[in-house]
Design brief:
With 280 residues, this protein is mainly alpha-helical. The chain has 8 helices and 4 strands; from the N terminus they run E-E-H-H-H-H-H-E-E-H-H-H. It has a two-stranded antiparallel ribbon with strand order 1-2. Strands 3-4 form a two-stranded antiparallel ribbon. Strand 1 and strand 2 form a beta hairpin. Helix 1 runs antiparallel to helix 5 and helix 5 packs antiparallel against helix 6.
């Protein structure tokens, strides 16, 4: 890790956090062009996304402050409070969806925002993953979100704690970069269900990697005693992703069946001879 200031009071955590946000916006811009997203719809996503990032930044700090309170008994927000991914994701995504659907309903009479919502969700999934992957490297440099104490050769020295830990941040980053590559290929090929795939795959990975985290005590407990807060949310993400994918597959199947039935009816109608004779 390298928790030292690089320039103007900024360390690698701050720098990589900024790079992560820029990458998210760049990826969304490029992929939107590749998939032919209309400018008016992209602009809505951009404005809602920027507001969502701002709100997500605040909620990520608030949730981390709650984690800190569970450990220390003191609730405070300052430069050393830190941030948590789930807090930022849920807060930012919630605000984004509110703006997207409310403004979209007012602005777009043709309901284009609804027609292309799931396609945009797939693009947003890629943006979230690349940002998260890059941000996790920042966590590794800062020494937060650390793994369990270990003397294994596969470890890093956590200068903040003063001992070696499992580099769970690095493992998560590598997983997310791999997931980003897979999702990108699927999105650029026009394949569906990428956002549900993200929710389910990350949910499974996060549930497992939590067993190797060393800061579990700091984050408190949930209503399920044997699950950490992150594991509890991971289960919810997986369920939401599974329900989302199942629903989308059912809708897609019904659409295909309707199209097939329509073609069959037209074929039967065109092949049936018309009797134009008149019986007297």
């Amino acid at each position: 890790m390298y928790p030292y200031d690089i320039i103007a009071g900024l360390d690698l955590y701050d720098i990589l956090f900024t790079v992560a946000l820029i990458l998210a916006l760049v990826v969304f811009r490029i992929y939107s062009d590749k998939r032919g997203i209309e400018t008016r719809l992209f602009n809505l996503c951009l404005y809602a996304g920027l507001v969502g990032i701002g709100v997500g930044y605040v909620t990520s700090i608030l949730v981390q402050a709650v984690y800190n309170y569970n450990e220390t008994g003191v609730f405070e927000i300052n430069s050393s409070t830190g941030m948590t991914f789930y807090g930022g994701l849920l807060g930012g995504a919630g605000v984004f969806l509110i703006i997207y659907f409310i403004y979209g309903a007012i602005r777009f009479k043709d309901k284009i925002h609804i027609k292309r919502f799931w396609e945009l969700a797939d693009l947003a999934g890629c943006s979230i993953v690349i940002a998260h992957a890059t941000g996790r490297i920042g966590c590794l440099m800062a020494g937060c979100c650390y793994g369990r104490r270990t003397s294994s050769w596969l470890s890093v020295m956590n200068l903040r704690l003063g001992y070696r830990t499992i580099p769970v941040q690095l493992f998560e980053s590598l997983f997310l970069y791999a997931l980003f590559a897979i999702m990108s290929v699927r999105v650029l090929k026009g394949k569906k269900y990428n956002f549900p795939i993200y929710l389910m795959s990350y949910g499974v990975f996060r549930f497992i990697i939590e067993y190797y985290r060393g800061d579990i005590v700091e984050r408190g407990k949930t209503i399920v005693d044997f699950l950490t807060p992150s594991q509890f949310i991971a289960v919810i993400l997986f369920i939401v992703g599974a329900v989302m994918m199942a629903s989308l597959m059912i809708i897609q199947h019904k659409k295909k069946s309707a199209i097939t039935d329509s073609k069959t009816d037209k074929s039967i109608t065109s092949d049936t001879p018309h009797n134009t004779s008149t019986n007297v």
